[in-house]
# Entry
Amino acid sequence: MSEGIALPALAAFATAAILALLLTPIVRRYANRFEVLDQPEERRVNTSPVPRGGGIAVAAAFVITSLGLLAADSLVGIWPVGDAPKASEVVALIGGAALAALIGSLDDWFDLRARWQLAGQLVVAGVAVGLGITVTLLANPFEPGSIHLGGVFGAAFAVLWILGMINSINFIDGLDGLSSGVALIAALTLGTISLTSPIDQPAIALFCFAMAGALLGFLRWNLHPASIFVGTSGVMVIGYILALLSILGSAKVAVALLVLGVPIIDTFWIIVRRLSRRRSPFSPDRGHIHHRLLDLGLSHAQTVLVIYAVCLALAVLSLVLSGTGPLYAFLGVFVIFGLGLYLLSRAAGRDDAT
# Structure
């Protein structure tokens, strides 16, 4: 494990948390003033209008803290010279996060149709790939070693990974504190993994802890009953940053697959079900895992805590497994999750089409 990184990690986490804690009420005030509100409807759980756009506070806290980390490193050197991220990677991570927040805020403001949201996601993914963010290695589940991706294949995988991560966060963003809490667990896990041997990437770990801090500060205002929602700006920022943090460096895509197994697999099965019924994969419904748990009689808070517990268990599993272990575990969770959704649907007595 990298030496001497504990204090900078704690400072990054605390700074981002305090910034998000202070910035979120300001964003909420302006969202209320300009009526950027999430209105109640059948598939939503809020019974009154709630401000959205909290992702602006998360993005600002992360960007400011990350710039502070870069400034501190240039002055006193807080990570080894060989571990310093490339300038293009820094621009993709920090600049891309700001761009994602800006594009997402347009949907928060104007409530755009799904096709325009997808266009915005493609823009931020394209910017990241244009700055050199690609996936070059994947764990090989069939034999020792890695699968090497190059050129167009690595770029295409990166685009799909970013899009998938953003939409996974989007699809699970249905209860107060759910998406931000799950993302917090993922960011902490990726940060911890980045400090362990043989990965040993303290710079990437610090960015992970900065993201975790920003999410924790925002979560204070987002827990049930939420006074502000993360909004599309938050979905874009959270999904984008987690996608890039798992790409930068080695062996973390499989880890992110496992840690974020609940939203990723939920997204997959939801899309499969919608397409099988000849519906748009982006058409809203009440078929998500959190809706199923609510239909079983769990309260809002109990449902969120159950999903937190599953994500924490998967996070611990990702920390103890190595090599292709996380990938095999993900495949196992994939099958179990699909069976679980089917059983929950039967137990709740609901038609999957609703």
Q: What stands out?
A: The chain has one domain: 6-258. The longest helix spans residues 6-33.
